[in-house]
Amino acid sequence: MDAQERRQAIARRLEGASGPVSAAVLAREHSVSRQIIVGDIALLRAGGMDIAATPRGYVLPAPAAGLVRTLACRHRADQMEEELNAMVDQGCTVLDVIVEHPIYGQLTGQLQISNRYDVGQFVQRCRRQEAAPLSQLTEGIHLHTVACPSQEAYDRVKESLSKLGFLLEEK
Fold it and tell me: Which residues bind Ni(2+) (predicted)?
């Protein structure tokens, strides 16, 4: 299999995947290094394929179903799990986290977190890799894009975050 055939196979794999596929898994499947896969993904993106890198692997983003809104939040790093659970417990998916960096401008991290299992996996990965959340760059201030099944679910998310003191609101 040459490089072009491998990239086509990766594209098909992502199109048929029911969840994220890690670079390590793709590397094993194609008997190449993880770095070769990262390069293949970069070339597929450059060719116009919309591939998102999430903490659990690569996905082809599905159009967000329902209501998509942005929330402004602020909390300490050790409260991240509580914040994410407050959103997914209302039936919403946390699509991303966004911070405003003084040099680079807007930085966005794809999350695609839909349930407590996803939250737990994300938090464990942060701890294992000793990775600080993006919000630490901005004294805890950050945005989340959420996809909610209804206005009622979104209102419940806002209420939950407000009760926790995490929602930035106009005073």
Answer: 75, 83, 142, 144
Task: Say whether 101 counts as a known binding-site residue.
Answer: no
Domain span at 122: 67-164
Question: Does the annotation list 75 as a binding residue?
Answer: yes
Q: pTM to 2 decimals?
A: 0.75
**30 and 85 assigned to the same domain:** no
144 is in an annotated binding site: yes
- At 93-152, the pLDDT tens digits run 999 999 988 888 898 988 989 999 999 999 998 888 887 777 777 888 999 999 999 999
List, as one string, the DSSP characters of 101-169. Answer: ETTTEEEEEEEEE-SHHHHHHHHHHHHHTTPPPGGGGGTTEEEEEEEESSHHHHHHHHHHHHHHT-B--
